[in-house]
Design brief:
Blueprint: E1 3-5, H1 15-19, E2 27-30, E3 33-36, E4 55-57
The structure holds iron/sulfur cluster (SF4) (2 copies).
Residues 5, 10-16, 34, 49-50, 52, 54-55 line the site of one iron/sulfur cluster (SF4).
Length: 58
């Protein structure tokens, strides 16, 4: 499983970044939008904190 971020919905709140349990984080912020990094393990924890519904599991 991997996550996909809908940039049109992303508000740039960075809640997903803080929620990610990985030391190196599976998400980074680029120009106010969340981007998935190769480090992401697809655990899906960030999905629950995205109130914008911008993170989907694929
Ligand atoms: S939690 Fe959702 S809206 Fe907030 S930065 Fe992450 S993807 Fe964007
Ligand atoms: S799916 Fe899991 S590992 Fe990937 S960014 Fe979200 S919380 Fe981090």
């Amino acid at each position: 499983m991997r996550i996909v971020i809908d940039e049109d919905k992303c508000t740039g709140c960075a809640f997903c970044l803080f929620e990610c349990p990985l030391p190196n984080k599976g998400i980074k912020m680029v120009k106010g939008k969340a981007k998935v990094k190769n480090d992401c393990e697809g655990c899906g924890k960030c999905i629950a904190v995205c109130t914008a519904g911008a993170i989907l599991l694929e």
